[in-house]
């Protein structure tokens, strides 16, 4: 079976890209798999992937592609997309050229199954994909994160998909309700980790780690406020934030205004999140919402306890508070700081949570996650009852 996975930009970094490559690498052991990136802006992907997975692109943004701009490419890059709803969270990334390329790809693609990885791509596939291809829309955002306009398009077009894959049970419930009465199947399948050895934290470094895009939804403003309270009592602890994004300068200024210049380091992007986690003793999630929370599972697998806001939806489905991590009432800065201080003051508790987290991580082995995808594929193609 040939499986094509369509993603906005496989050459960048982030949880969706990492999860996509993890899944593609495992499925490629069983099927013919390609990852199709709408955009390409660098020579090699930021994150590694298996040689068994073919990687192609639709729109080349590299400087060497400028030779094609005289054929109208540049002008189409400057025109906004008409294919994507303006409330699609990545709307500004798309343009008239990506519209043209996507329409051509969806009309001509040669594959058995197309997996699309965000709302705008799911809707485009439902509208434009050629007959005979099984369409699977994967949702990396939680249901409540969609704005009204894009949600209306979801209601209109998702019934044209063969299946919707959610990352959490809570989102499965929402999409099953929305699609009730339609033939579209809904499955809950979380992200997975490769079944390979990974570095382990010794929990000896006084380092707290956060990783993800520097954007509002990740809540790093809340993290800085909480860590300022921690530093008042534990000035020997450091916070490392990995990632880049539109709020980088704003967050740096906030850190300086809070007097955290000696305690907070913005580390930039890394292709080795697991290696950096192994150097930390606590991982933190301060997002305003999370579709899943890939770094939670990665931290568990590295033997690092997690402190997270109980935001919608992912963290609460992965973390059992008090057993393998700590869930803090969403937005309670004081409680978040207190949870960090409590762990810092109790190495035994830190180690207990870390050991339990390793057991939790076993549930997210990519081989088992891929098995669930295969079950869904078989179900869709054979018409069996889910």
From TrEMBL:
Listed Pfam families: Glyco_transf_4 (PF13439), Glycos_transf_1 (PF00534)
Positions of the Glycosyltransferase subfamily 4-like N-terminal domain: 13-193
Domain Glycosyl transferase family: 201-359
Gene3D superfamilies recorded: Glycogen Phosphorylase B
Keyword annotations of the record: Glycosyltransferase, Transferase
UniProt-recorded name of the protein: Glycosyltransferase family 4 protein
Organism, as annotated: Actinoallomurus vinaceus
